[in-house]
Design goal:
The structure is a homodimer of 242-residue chains. With 242 residues, chain A is mainly α. Chain A has one domain: Methane Monooxygenase Hydroxylase, Chain G, domain 1, CATH 1.20.58.220. In chain A, 83% of the residues lie in helices and 0% in strands. In chain A, helix 2 runs antiparallel to helix 3 and helix 4 (85-121) runs antiparallel to helix 7 (189-221). Chain A is elongated and about 65 Å long. Residues 234-242 of chain A have low confidence and may be disordered.
């Protein structure tokens, strides 16, 4: 049932093969844009750069357009090529992945909007160290998940899922300490709430990157691991290194 | 390009037609369960009923299982029947819809978890009136979106999108007043934060119901209206009543 890059290149129809490659290329381009959106939204926050935050907000249109375009390509491939087995899984995995990338883009926008609110309030607030730290984590997760997708690399996909557990626990501890600061200084409530929404957005981005990693396993193994704890799966059966 | 229930019943293959009908039936069953989860999560909150909240949390597994089962059916139909045009759109719309229903289920779980935390804290808090009100709104949206799906009813789908605007504005005003209460009584911060997470979950549920409504328009009109303001579309062109 396993597929590799090789089997995908053995299509009788060279044109069909090219279409599948293009789907992947376009998905990677969308992933690159989305990752940049997350990075710039966080930079805008940390540097109180309202103009950059506005650019992130405006660029969301481009992310949405890419989703519609890639989904449309997927529908065309399904209608014209009627793919089966691993090709069908690739097309379905791409269309699911665009949905998660688009939602990551939405979360980047939310971060940008809160960055604007915080810059306007002009107060130095708590939680920026945690935001920087967690944002680095989730950006690595997006990048690794996309690399895993291109390379059909289930081992890397499993690593993304493990990173998500780390992000969740960092998030929980950051939220707890922010709540303490709120109680100590009620005047900071509004600003700290904005930082909480930002942390929440980052945590959701981690979840979406985790979804992307699950599609890689579905793609390669034909195994739908959504809603399972993929750590509990036999590593060797997934990585082929057993 | 329009389709109606009639065209779907004119398939040469009776078996194929039956498979498509089953997809819809199973999606409706999943929708019914998810709507019940939302209702029970909110009831658990309003009645401080921890046991009911725990049942909602445990039932999420059933929601997830339904998603995997329906998605698997969709994949089988794509592989075996190689549907085109409106049939292909139906299968793709069903698989997208399961993803939104599953996420509504996740949000119901979040409400249930916060209901447990609030019942344990044992404090009467602000915002319950707003929670009840917004939850009634979003449950109507889910129900209408699912009905619109079964009946290929774009007019009802547009109504769902309009409801979502109302939910968003109720949500914003509820959040604002909760923040004021927090500032007035810092001891209530932790409880009010729980209510804020619940309102956020309800607002997200509204967004997912809105997505379901967009798939109905895609399904019937072959028009991908995601990321457009569907109110700005010419109503008569969508409802066929122009």
């Amino acid at each position: 049932m396993d597929i590799t890059s090789e089997t995908h290149s053995q299509h009788i129809s060279k044109q069909f093969n090219q279409e599948l490659e293009e789907l992947k290329t376009h998905l990677m381009a969308m992933g690159g844009l989305v990752e940049k959106q997350v990075q710039e939204a966080v930079t805008a926050l940390l540097d109180s750069d309202t103009r950059l935050a506005e650019r992130v907000r405006d660029n969301d249109k481009a992310v949405n357009e890419m989703q519609l375009k890639i989904d449309d390509e997927c529908t065309r491939v399904l209608a014209r090529r009627q793919p089966a087995a691993s090709d069908l899984r690739l097309v379905l995995a791409v269309t699911r992945a665009t949905s998660d990338l688009e939602r990551i883009g939405d979360e980047a926008c939310k971060i940008a909007r809160n960055a604007i609110a915080l810059a306007e309030a002009g107060r130095q607030v708590h939680g920026f160290v945690e935001v920087r730290h967690i944002s680095e984590h989730v950006r690595n997760m997006i990048r690794d998940a996309l690399t895993a997708f291109t390379r059909f690399d289930t081992e890397l996909a499993l690593k993304v899922a493990q990173e998500d557990d780390a992000v969740d626990s960092e998030y929980t501890s950051a939220m707890r300490s922010l709540m303490t600061f709120m109680m100590e200084d009620p005047r900071s409530i509004s600003s700290i709430l904005s930082v909480m929404w930002i942390l929440r957005a980052l945590e959701r981005i981690g979840d979406h990157a985790d979804n992307l990693a699950e599609y890689v396993i579905y793609l390669v193994k034909g195994l739908d691991v959504r809603h399972r704890n993929i750590h509990s799966l036999d590593d060797s059966s997934l990585t082929g290194k057993g």
